[in-house]
Amino acid sequence: MLEANNTFFGVEESNDMLKTKVTYIISDIDKALAFEWIADHLNKEKFDLNFILLNNGNSKLEDFLNEHKISVERINIHSKKDWPSVWLRLFFYFKRQKPDIIHCHLFTANILGLSAAKMARVKHRIYTRHHSDYHFRYFSKGVKWDKLCNYLATAIIAPSGAVKKVLTEMESVPEAKIQLIHHGFDLAYFSNVSDGLHQKLRDQYNLSNKSPVIGVISRFTELKGIQYIIPAFQKLLIGYPNALLLLFNARGDYEKQINSLLETLPKGSFYSVPFEQELAAIYSLFDIFVQVSVDTNIEAFGQTYVEALAAGVPSIFTLAGIAPDFIINGENAVVVPFKDAHAIYNGMIHILQDRTFSDQMIQKGKKDVYAQFAISKMISALENLYMKIYVVK
Predict the structure, then answer these.
(1) What pTM value is reported for the model?
(2) Can you point out the beta strands (E) in 232-359?
């Protein structure tokens, strides 16, 4: 039997020569657990992974990659005026480094990365679609850019059925070009919160020990439906006068309208927090979590759908983003119609008054997210895609 070795016609090959070179191009990111997990878990024996970050200065992701000795290069970008110079830097980077695959994330990275890679003759060009039909609704000029990216890409990752539907039905992308790969999570991160951190956050945001605590983690934009949560909570206060509404990521283009609604609530019954670093641990403060985006296709994914269930918080959802792919009313969450404050209130009451129902949803929710959204499952799908589109050298 011949012994396996890394030789070809008597010439020894290094391990690096056998690896598939994958370059991630990401724009406008600071802290991003998803990319940290990918950097940690992608098979380092098969893939030579490096990152290009298009950012206006340093970021927590860049710090993480440097600390873990993962190749990263930042190209500073401040506005669209910088696009030509950034494009040229990307083009010459690709010509010099000759990646086998580039994988782009987010709007600016998609446009500049995919186009520069095509001109540099990078054969395999992937992008993950992180928005759904947003441009059709709110920024019609963006649709042409989306269609350009669809053309430039050799493969497109849709993280949910909603995104795949937009790509195929609204943008006429061939199904063969689309790969449905759900986002993956280090799910234990959301359930294994230390007592010390939990108490620290409790002291910071609920020092008076109010109960029940209704949690929201959503930007203050019209599409997130917070304007329907507030009147539902106001009604809840009648029967639960000690209830507390905690709103995180409390900033956005709908801030004025939401703040006006919040002013109708009793003083001390809510707390708005623009930024909190420990969002995973924040779930441990909630008795109920609410995420009620206003339309099925408005969310590309919606990480909070998965995070809340992983954290064991009984939740109220609309069927937006990833939710239609796995949420079942009364089994792993309470499903309410879009734009329905009364239904949200009824869901809160049902969860609070039926502990058996609530406990069963918690157990089913955890089981479902571990089955479908474990980080290992996403990493396996990505590795299979990379190997499928790039035959080993």
Answers:
(1) 0.88
(2) 244-248, 270-273, 288-291, 315-317, 334-335
pLDDT digits (tens, 9 = 90+) for 292-319: 999 988 899 999 999 999 999 999 999 9
Helix (H, G, I), strand (E, B) or coil at 206: coil
CA distances from 319 to 88, 108, 282, 287, 322 (A): 42, 29, 23, 21, 8
Ranges of CATH 3.40.50.2000 domains, the chain: 7-184+375-389, 188-372
In tens, the pLDDT along 214-253 reads 999 999 999 999 999 999 999 999 999 999 999 999 999 9
Phi, psi (degrees; rounded to nearest 5) at 272:
-105, 130
Rg (CA), the chain: 23
Containing 259, the helix (H) or strand (E) segment is helix 255-262
37-41 long-range Cβ contacts below 8 angstroms, 24+ apart: 37/184, 37/185, 37/186, 37/375, 37/379, 38/379, 38/382, 39/64, 39/65, 39/68, 39/70, 40/68, 41/375, 41/376, 41/379
257 phi, psi to nearest 5 deg: -65, -40
What's the full length of the chain, in residues?
393
User: CA 60, 49, 278 angle in degrees (round to 5)?
Assistant: 25
CA distance 104 to 4: 36
Rounded CA separation 10/323 (Å): 55
Could you tell me which of 218, 245, 243 has the C-alpha nearest to residue 230?
245
Residue among 3, 52, 62, 20 nearest 392 (CA): 20
The candidate with the shortest Cα–Cα distance to 165, out of 147, 155, 178, 152, is 178
| CATH superfamily name and code, 7-184+375-389 | Glycogen Phosphorylase B; (3.40.50.2000)
What's the token pair of residue 64?
A: 């993480």
